[in-house]
Amino acid sequence: MAAEASSVTEKIEPRPASGIVERAPLVAFARRHRDLLLAPFVIGAGVLLWEWLVRWQEYPVFVLPGPGVVARRFAAVVADGSLLFHAQATLVEVMLGLALGVGLALLLGYVFGKNHTIERLVAPYVVASQSVPIVALAPLLVIWFGSGLLSKVLVVALITFFPTLISTIVGLRTVDADLRDLMRSLKAGRWQTFRQLELPSALPVLFGGLKLSAILAVVGAVVGELLGASSGLGYLINLARGVLDTPLLFAAILSLVLIAQILYGAVLLIERRALRWQRAG
Are 237 and 253 in contact (CB under 8 A)? Predict the structure, then answer.
């Protein structure tokens, strides 16, 4: 009787459907990456709207080319290597200028964050240098340093310097004063305090400035190239504009967007790894 009762119980006990169990991880993944999954649909809708607008208004190619025309021109300049050549030149300028600007900003931001006297003496000159538009300073840099790599690197360094400087200062000053007192009571040295307290506390704010600097670096490189260069995507934009090759112009702009997105994504990935402890807490 007991065996029969247990078999009956097994028969009437509800069991989860295998399809629901298999779909559960997929649903969880879709919820976590909803923005990523929606991006292709948003881009596709934008392309369709673009194509519809071109056909509806019957724009000539030199005014607004359709997405198909731009895609063919993009594929052509990729195939002949010209787009990759100019993109590589721009990327070198961006990376060198970003390293220089961010490095100086981190160093000076740490000094300003720790010493109010030095900040009051030097900060007005730093702010004055940033109040001048980069498009006004770039021609001077081209005149002084020529139209080669150095002038472009300096333009990128100038435009990326200030966001990182401000985020570094703000990040250092958000450190809890009680935690500073605790480190002093534990006889922690300056390096120990920086590594174990100041740097972890400042990182969330610092990465905000770094993400902005990564995007502005591309803008700075293009500004420098537009004023005088023999290579780079800014040079390619000037060339396309001169011969009314609007599809090539779009191809260069799309390449700039792609470079900016890659740099922003790289900083975002580093931020997630560096702040893993914060999410775990």
Answer: yes
Q: Is 16 left (phi over 0), alpha (psi -120 to 50) or beta?
A: beta
Please give the average per-residue pLDDT across 13-29, as a whole number.
56
The 3-state DSSP composition of the chain as helix, strand, coil percent (nearest 5) reads 85, 0, 15
* CA distance linking residue 209 with residue 169, whole number of Å: 11
**Strand, coil or helix: 80:** coil
Tokens of 247: 């599809």
CA 38 to chain centre: 20
Is the distance from CB of 230 to CB of 199 less than 8 angstroms? no
**Tokens matching residue 212:** 């902005």
Which structure tokens are listed for 18?
């295998």
Please state the pTM of the whole predicted model.
0.80
Between the alpha carbon of residue 65 and those of residues 45, 73, 128, 248, 255, the distances in Å are 17, 10, 42, 10, 17
Task: Output the pLDDT for position 24.
Answer: 61
d(C-alpha 71, C-alpha 73), whole Å = 5
Q: What residues contact residue 125 under an 8 Å CB cut-off, 6+ apart?
A: none
The Cα–Cα gap between 140 and 129 comes to: 13
Give pLDDT, residue 16: 53
